[in-house]
């Protein structure tokens, strides 16, 4: 699973910016577009 498509468990449900890598974006976009 991709960090960008999971529910954030950080305070205030903000994105865990320190854990997100550039290579996480394309797979997340592809996965989310399939759901549309």
From TrEMBL:
Please report the name of this protein according to its UniProt entry.
Uncharacterized protein
